[in-house]
Design goal:
The protein has about 120 residues and is α+β, with helices and mostly antiparallel strands. The protein has 7 helices and 3 strands.
């Protein structure tokens, strides 16, 4: 969804639901998360069912995706499993400060998406 917004910058909610297959409720929830996470880079507004993205300065989209990746335990865990040469899983958990609860949640999420 972020990539779509960065590309078009103004979209109707209906267009976003068609492109992503997300429900409107989820779209608004994701907007709130994006707005909070990237308030230093852009302004995200919804007016009359139209989304407007105002970027403050020239923005490399990779900056946004890197920030999302760094903040996502799930993505870091997925990267761990995809690396050929890796440290022990116990070391990874210690390094990432993951609790058993977090690991259970992440492993369930991985199983849910089919890994």
């Amino acid at each position: 969804m972020l990539q779509i917004l960065l590309e078009f910058q103004t979209l109707e909610i209906e267009q976003i639901t068609q492109i992503t297959s997300f429900s409107e409720k989820n779209i608004y929830q994701y907007f709130a998360e994006l707005k909070e996470e990237f308030q230093d880079l852009f302004c995200l507004r919804v007016m009359k069912r139209t989304v407007h993205l105002n970027i403050y300065t020239k923005l490399n989209p990779l900056v946004c995706f890197h920030r999302i990746h760094q903040g996502s335990t799930f993505l870091r865990l997925l990267c761990y499993f995809l690396r050929e040469e890796k440290e022990s899983f116990a070391c990874f958990i210690q390094k990432e400060y993951l609790s058993r609860f977090n690991m259970t949640t992440e492993v369930c999420a991985i199983r849910y998406i089919g890994f």
